[in-house]
Structure of DUF3466 family protein:
Amino acid sequence: MKHSRTLISSLLALASSSAAAVESYDIIDLGNLGTNPAFVFDVNNAGIAVGYSAGPLVDVEGSDTQQPDFTSHAFAFDNPTMTDLGAIVNDTESFDLSVAFSINENNVAIGYSFKEVERTDSNGDPFTTVIEKPIYIDTASQAITEIPSFDASDEQPGRALSGNDNTLFVGFGKFNPPDDTDDSGNALDTYYDRGFIYDSSDSSLVRIDPLTDNTGLLSVMRDVNNNGIATGWAQKNVDDIVLSVAFYVDHADPTNVVEMSLLSDGNSFPWAINNAGVIVGRAADAEKTHFTAFSYDVATQSVTDLGVLNENSPFSEAFDINNNNQIVGTSTNSVFPTTNHAFIYEDGVMKDLNDLIDCKVDGSEPIAPANWTLSEARAINDNGVIVGNGILDGVPKGFMLIPRPGQQPQACQPFFTEDSSGSGSFPLSWIAFLLVGGIWVRRKS
């Protein structure tokens, strides 16, 4: 264990020494809290990753079956240790759940947890229900702090999605517009998602409304940088068509919401913003035929189409950008069958991360296609460490990639040999594979 931790520390130090393009990565399986896979969403500069995983299987009393000890819990992975971050205490085991979407440089995880709340029905009788509660968690102490609802007297569901290194957290919660009425003018008790910016220093909660005056529309805050610039998306009514559009707003002036002019006037969804004010996400392309990953510079208001991995499978989405302007996400790699591959975009080029990890090794020789398929890269820190989700030996798994500057990935050995006459032999199984339309693609793990 100590050796593994020393190794990862050395690799992180090496990775931080250069922000140049990386030729290859070491891959780490994040494991899980119990018997089910862990899914990862973010990593900070200390190399601590967060996400969620279901609990270990336990015996069901009076039965021969087993079930997870809890539905899922947020975790913090600090190689090689995975820490269960717990959940808001519930009486109902099936609702024992929490998820972490983000982690800041103070090692605070941000997400949500199920919570039981008391309600009163139309007859005035009390009952208990379960809601999603936005939270942040100190990963060292596992202390959970709840983010309040818009109306303190009416606790409603919500999720916290991200936070900066200061005191700001963003997400969305349910809001009941006071002027929401039916055709007869009667007040309606209808709740809609509204984005929020929460300042933990003074417990202030700022609501960010949709871009047009329509109570039935939604808004969500996705990320906030250390300068207090937050990004999100909101629905907008344009000629009776509802579009979802990306925007940004300064926490110091929350009434000044700026809609981003992107690749077209179609739908757009931001995911992340770095400290320089560069925002990434996905947006309808210029022809409005598909979604493509984009970057947008708040200072210059310039937008870049990041492209796709496969021009015949035109879809990509950027999930994160670090302070070195390295961007990661996912893009469709093939249509039949439909598969997505994780990518990194740097120096103007989108690269498939599956091409930057070693081939599966037997002994000392890389001889076979990888047992890993990297499907999506969810986050990248300033040291170039990437986390994401993929498939390992047919099982969904979270992964961490550690940069190896200056090293090329180990390539696979060919699956054929040459006999003494110079004619090549080829396994019948691969011939059968090719006859049914398969294409041998070099993949690595």
